[in-house]
């Protein structure tokens, strides 16, 4: 965002640090209630924790073992809310848990699934049941029965981006690749010194929200020169992607001997996603990478369950992230609470407040944002009621079904390949018409970068979704990264460099 388009003289109601799911969730909620909002992200949207998840909207079946009933109930209810808000990027999925009696008795699993079925309101999702495996099962022959229940899969990075788009459409100012250097309390407002590629500038805001994720405590200590009210535990979660392990469309939830669980989830039609791990992480959150020990752990869990045996050679991609969990002094990383904690600074009269977000999970981001607004309500008179449960995210409006949208796309662009029409429908929902306009043939889509990516879509992502680099487009906006060769990426990079040089000249 060019400096000359940022209202530096005004005092924003809220300034938010962090463009992950919690930051953009708070931004859209606040902007929709009529507050002026500024959000800055030091890298790309969803470039860290929020794009390194298991791609699930789920209640968290295993959290019941740790008696986190409030969190599970909230998450279960949110599945239905988010399904309505974003039916293009969130889809129901059946999960099968193979029964391994030496790990958990059947009665315990049935009890957990009973709570799972009835703790939260279900409208679209089916309940749980017992299943028996036949000879065609992908599981090892020794595994003969299990349990089945419902949760949802999600494109996590697009969930973040679409919330950012929604926030902008409600009036929020969203800037990426912009670092907050300092933030100082000036009695009734905060003064932030920011830096982007053009240089440094200042903004002011009545309230500062610290949604910096893994950097939440570091931001308080280093940028604000204050003491963090809570410690943060960085818990690494890593995943591997392999060629499709089984033909079925359901996911598997696998119990391991250490009492942890690992998911095997269908991914992008041709692959299976396996994860996640739980290990303490001490390094720079921006540099987290999967370890060989984690790779071997995930392979071991998969091989203990599936007929198809995997080695390191089958792995086509890995990714890792850190979950910034509020330190509850648990000895075992797997049992640290996944619930969120909102810390409102104890401010004197007339001093600008600080709200910091510790922990949280993808599924409950919207409720976290509502809780944040409730905490900030005393600072804004006549704040409207919560509203985000009832309004679709961009692209989720006016969709009867994804299948019908695919038909409509192919009716307009008759030579669209089936897989491309499906990707457009899944990625953009009803916003695909903002990309296609009146185009009626693939030849009109512009330069072909391969694998169904054309210049028209790339231009849209740069103009409307803050995309700058090939990484932004291939891994966080389209999930096409697994298909692109180094040479194809280089061609896209050259195009993007030319595009952004041209855009910069137009602004100047």
TrEMBL record:
One of its GO terms (biological process) is glycerol-3-phosphate catabolic process. Pfam families: DAO, DAO_C. Residues 13-332 form the FAD dependent oxidoreductase domain. It catalyses: a quinone + sn-glycerol 3-phosphate = dihydroxyacetone phosphate + a quinol. Residues 388-494 form the Alpha-glycerophosphate oxidase C-terminal domain. GO terms for cellular component: glycerol-3-phosphate dehydrogenase (FAD) complex. InterPro entries: DAO_C (IPR031656), DAO_C_sf (IPR038299), FAD-dep_OxRdtase (IPR006076), FAD/NAD-bd_sf (IPR036188), G3P_DH_FAD-dep (IPR000447). The keyword Zinc-finger does not apply. Keywords: FAD, Flavoprotein, Oxidoreductase. Its EC number is 1.1.5.3. Its cofactor is FAD. GO terms for molecular function: glycerol-3-phosphate dehydrogenase (quinone) activity. It comes from the Bacteria. Belongs to the FAD-dependent glycerol-3-phosphate dehydrogenase family. PANTHER family: GLYCEROL-3-PHOSPHATE DEHYDROGENASE, GLYCEROL-3-PHOSPHATE DEHYDROGENASE, MITOCHONDRIAL. This is Glycerol-3-phosphate dehydrogenase. The lineage of its organism: Bacteria, Pseudomonadati, Pseudomonadota, Gammaproteobacteria, Moraxellales.
């Amino acid at each position: 965002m060019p400096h000359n388009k940022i209202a530096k003289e005004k005092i924003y109601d809220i300034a938010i640090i962090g463009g992950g799911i919690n930051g953009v969730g708070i931004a859209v909620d606040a902007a929709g209630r009529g507050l002026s909002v500024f959000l800055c992200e030091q890298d790309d949207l969803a470039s860290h924790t929020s794009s390194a998840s298991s791609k699930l909207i789920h209640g968290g079946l295993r959290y019941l073992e740790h008696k986190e009933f409030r969190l599970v109930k909230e998450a279960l209810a949110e599945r239905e809310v988010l399904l309505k808000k974003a039916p293009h990027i969130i889809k129901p999925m059946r999960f099968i848990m193979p029964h391994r009696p030496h790990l958990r008795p059947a009665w315990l699993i049935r009890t957990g699934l009973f709570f799972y079925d009835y703790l939260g309101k279900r409208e679209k999702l089916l309940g749980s049941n017992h299943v028996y495996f036949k000879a065609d099962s992908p599981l090892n022959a020794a595994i003969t029965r299990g349990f089945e229940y419902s949760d949802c899969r999600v494109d996590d990075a697009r969930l973040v981006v679409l919330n950012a788009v929604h926030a902008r459409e409600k009036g929020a100012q969203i800037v990426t690749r912009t670092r907050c250097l300092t933030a100082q309390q000036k009695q009734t407002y905060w003064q932030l010194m920011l830096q982007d590629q053009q240089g440094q500038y200042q903004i002011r805001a009545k309230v500062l929200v610290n949604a910096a994720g893994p950097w939440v405590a570091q931001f308080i200590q280093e940028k604000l020169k204050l003491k963090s009210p809570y410690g943060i535990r960085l818990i690494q979660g890593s995943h591997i992607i392999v060629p499709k392990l089984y033909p079925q469309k359901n996911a598997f939830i696998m119990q391991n001997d250490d009492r942890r669980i690992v998911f095997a989830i269908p991914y992008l039609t041709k692959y299976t996603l396996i994860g996640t791990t739980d290990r303490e992480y001490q390094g720079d959150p921006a540099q987290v990478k999967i370890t060989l020990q984690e790779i071997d752990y995930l392979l071991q869990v998969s091989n203990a369950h599936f007929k198809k045996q995997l080695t390191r050679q089958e792995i086509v991609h890995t990714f890792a992230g850190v979950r910034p969990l509020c330190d509850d002094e648990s000895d075992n990383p797997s049992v640290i609470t996944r619930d969120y904690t909102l810390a409102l600074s104890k401010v004197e009269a007339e001093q600008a407040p600080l709200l910091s977000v510790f922990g949280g999970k993808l599924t409950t981001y919207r409720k976290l944002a509502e809780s944040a607004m409730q905490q900030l309500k005393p600072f804004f008179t006549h704040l409207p009621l919560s509203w985000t449960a009832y309004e679709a995210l961009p692209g989720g409006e006016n969709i009867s079904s994804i299948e019908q949208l695919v038909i409509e796309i192919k009716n307009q662009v008759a030579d669209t390949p089936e897989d491309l029409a499906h990707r457009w429908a899944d990625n953009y929902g009803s916003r695909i018409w903002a990309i296609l306009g009146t185009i009626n043939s693939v030849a009109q889509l512009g330069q072909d970068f391969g694998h169904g990516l054309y210049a028209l879509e790339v231009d849209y992502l740069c103009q409307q979704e803050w995309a700058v680099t090939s990484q932004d487009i291939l891994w966080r906006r389209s999930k096409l990264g697994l298909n692109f060769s180094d040479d194809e990426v280089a061609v896209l990079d050259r195009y993007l460099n030319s595009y952004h040089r041209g855009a910069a000249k137009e602004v100047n």
